[in-house]
Specification:
alpha+beta
């Protein structure tokens, strides 16, 4: 199992869409929200994905196809 941390940035038209829920159900990945800031216009989420590396990459490509900006996360993230 691999773990990858990414930041999803959502445009206004995707704020109300259940992207993370769907990602966890359509792909064999475990999602864990580590940080988030969402309002009615914009939003971002630092997400930890766990699973097979190829499945993680497929899930990220799927999110990008829907209009989510996906950026890698490095450094410390809130633990516990």
């Amino acid at each position: 199992m691999a773990v990858k941390r990414v930041r999803f940035t959502f445009p206004e038209n995707l704020i109300r869409e259940p992207i993370i829920y769907r990602l966890g159900h359509e792909f064999q990945v475990i999602t864990n929200v580590r940080m988030a800031d969402v309002d009615e216009k914009t939003g971002w989420v630092v997400l930890e994905l766990e699973g097979d590396p190829d499945e993680i990459e497929r899930s990220l490509a799927w999110a990008q196809e829907r209009g989510v900006r996906v950026d890698p996360v490095t450094g410390d993230i809130v633990e516990g």
